[in-house]
Amino acid sequence: MQDIRIKDLPPPHGGKLVERVVRDPRAAWKLMEKCSAVYDIKPTLFKGNPVRNVYREIMSVCYGFFSPVEGSMTKAELESVLERRRLLSGWVFPYPILFDISEDDFKQLREKFGEIGPGDWLLLRLKGEPFAILEIEEVYEINPGDVAVRTFGTPEKNPEVVKVPFDEKHTGYNIYRSLNKIILAGKYTIINEPKLRPPFDRFWYPPKKAREEFKRRGWTTVIAHQTRNVPHTGHEALMKMAAYIGDIKPCDGIVVNAIIGAKRIGDFPDEAIVEAHEMLHLAGYIKPERHMVTITLWDMRYGNPIESLLHAVIRQNMGISFHMFGRDHAALGEYYDIYATQILWSKGIPSFGFDAPPFAVPGGFYIRPQNIAEFWYCPKCKEFAYSENCNHKGIYSRYSGSFIRGLINEGLTPPPEIYRPEVYKVVVKWWKEFGYPFNNEKYLKEREERLEVDLPHMDIPEHLKKKIS
What we know:
Elements: H1 2-7, H2 25-33, E1 35-40, E2 44-46, E3 49-52, H3 54-62, E4 71-72, H4 75-84, E5 100-101, H5 103-113, E6 121-126, E7 129-141, H6 144-152, H7 171-177, E8 182-190, E9 195-196, H8 207-217, E10 222-227, H9 233-242, E11 253-260, H10 270-282, E12 291-297, H11 305-318, E13 322-325, H12 340-346, E14 368-371, E15 375-378, E16 383-386, H13 401-409, H14 421-434, H15 441-450, E17 453-454, H16 462-468
Parallel strand pairs: 1-6, 10-11, 10-13, 11-12, 13-14
Antiparallel strand pairs: 2-3, 4-8, 5-8, 6-7, 7-8, 9-17, 15-16
Helix pairs in contact: 6-7, 8-11, 10-14
């Protein structure tokens, strides 16, 4: 396994990349002929605010980010994921991937199109245009509250890392408990390929395209930086230094993979996040030859160790060999131990189904962790110091996201020790564009209207128009 990673990019998780995108209109028409019903995709709402749109999961499945998952999970698959963090095939996978529909909508579908169940195909529309097909394998019901609790864990069942029970202050927990009860399980196929809107279009590197780009650049060892944030100088130090502590040699490339989708109120707008990371190499702080910004569509769950498993799935599928894991990885609040992800990737978490690290279990990963404590700016050293090295712990300046956001909210320009001036200009650019610097209810609702994609108008034969009207 080590040799594979030295000589070439790691294999996809599950052994083969999923790609379920039909680009030939005539082939798409043939698939549409088989559809028994039509459904317009709706967002998942929590207290009236959109917190998820299943189209992002369909995109990530069909373009291979979530390989080997091919669609909405059956009841047995869901149970396997919740109990063991494994697919029925045995491959590690952390989260339920579900197509949920309300009881009223399902009733209306049946009233309009007749009985709908296993063996039927459902045409899914997005923004009024044909988008994808769901081949229904099973219809079943869930208890959303139970799914939410079992997804993230409890202090009683997962005492190694879960500190307090999850509640409605946790965005990811709200996503699962806001799901509709009826689940339609089956494979997805995109039949009308969306176009990513600016600025996201230039960062769109699905796994197949990412692997091609890595090979074009001559990269065989690549390290991933997970982000949902505009980069401060601590992030920059993390990327630069982590890329030089790989198991084999300095990594050829540093890949920022930004999670794009609905996020908690208070995070930065996605547009600012991707362009600010891009600015690090445009402004020369990281060599462009070694730095690449990409995106994945996913409504973030803030699941700390659980989310880190999904990140490993996504990034190994992209061809990435190493992954940085720092303090409070993909976390929100104090639900998990701040080093829960590093505990998982260094020795495992038995209560979540891992008696060993995720790369050392059957069905696990080729990707390897770079577990890192903290970087801070030390005024005594006058440089970025790593917590395991610097001895001036009483005077260091730890980075606090809430402190930085507080500065910006007050209209204060963060000092260059915190934000590169060019990066802060990107924050201001999107602040002017939206009228606010951070994600809020207005942004969530406007985002749901525009999404990140445009669907081309699909010219279809007259008999199909009647069928899907």
